[in-house]
């Protein structure tokens, strides 16, 4: 077989099988940067999820690399500048896990409003404290969605069925397009003022880093609830933890962290904050979709074609 492909994170078997029919595949997960640098030289393609940091050193060491595939949406673990400089095609699989991330966000929203994780932990510890876990309903609450892309829109659909009022902010979506999706679009400042629950669904870029911070939290409703199932860093973790502790923010649900796994995150150990370990895309269906998508794009590129999601 002509080409060698390295898979350095856990990818669903369905995509790996597609690759094995045509190319040599090695699966080596959990490699350190040094180990990856020492290994990558003989590979024509590298496939990752979010665990592997594809740094400039890794890209420079990958003398034969022609393709880097990200089995998921965000490419923030790949040094795009270094890859572009070397002419390496980087492709992702942005559609395969949209519904998984959407459903996880809805699960986090409901859990946050009904204190489900805390009540479970309490019961498992032998308690029966019904009044401690009084919740609030989604019905007639205003949901502020920041980022009206694939996931933001699917959340709008599902939240509408709970009779929530949906407001949104996205500088790249027109008011008319948002309205057609049942979303009232407005400035970020206005959204922060009006929302009972805020959920962020943007990429982590310069413009979105810490858009929820100590200053913007002050402009929000007292008792607002905040969800981040997009990327760590969109929310200033210390500011959010302080605001939950002070009671300004009634609670937060967080799936993604500035550093993963989070070692000393201020979000851990705060009773009003519920967390999951970056599980947004972790469904059998989504992992199968993204694995197949990057595998197919990898074969296309190695055989001289182009990738679908570059
Ligand atoms: P998408 O590209 O379809 O949508 C992102 C939207 O953000 C776009 O509509 C874009 O116009 C908008 N945007 C860009 N800059 C903005 C700004 N400054 N303010 C407001 N909006 C802005 O992406 P998606 O597939 O919907 O994914 C959204 C996020 O969720 C990404 O960060 C992705 O990496 C993340 N994600 C996380 C998980 C998980 O496991 N938790 C799973 C899938 C995706
Ligand atoms: C993504 O960007 O697709 C998600 O973070 C999911 C993941 O691959 O972990």
Structure summarized in a few sentences:
36% of the residues lie in helices and 16% in strands.
Give an overview in words.
The protein has 310 residues and is α/β, with parallel strands linked by helices. The protein has twelve helices and twelve strands. It has helices spanning 13-20, 33-39, 56-61, 80-85, 98-114, 116-124, 150-160, 175-180, 188-194, 214-218, 237-246, 284-302, and strands at 4-7, 24-27, 45-48, 67-70, 89-92, 142-146, 165-169, 184-185, 197-200, 224-228, 249-254, 273-275. The strands form two sheets. A seven-stranded parallel beta sheet has the order 8-7-6-9-10-11-12, sandwiched between helices. Helix 1 packs parallel to helix 12. The two termini are 26 Å apart. 43% of the residues are buried.
Ligand inventory reads: nicotinamide-adenine-dinucleotide, D-malate
Mean pLDDT over the residues: 97
- Kindly estimate the percentage of residues that lie in beta strands according to DSSP: 15-25%
SSE series: EHEHEHEHEHHEHEHEHEHEHEEH
Describe the strand arrangement of the main beta sheet, using strand numbers: 8-7-6-9-10-11-12
Helix coverage percent of residues?
25-40%
Overall shape: globular
Largest sheet: 7 strands, parallel
Number of helices: 12
- Count of DSSP E strands? 12
- Unreliable spans: none
Enzyme class: oxidoreductase
Pathway: Amino-acid biosynthesis; L-serine biosynthesis; L-serine from 3-phospho-D-glycerate: step 1/3
Protein name: D-3-phosphoglycerate dehydrogenase
Keywords: Amino-acid biosynthesis, NAD, Oxidoreductase, Serine biosynthesis
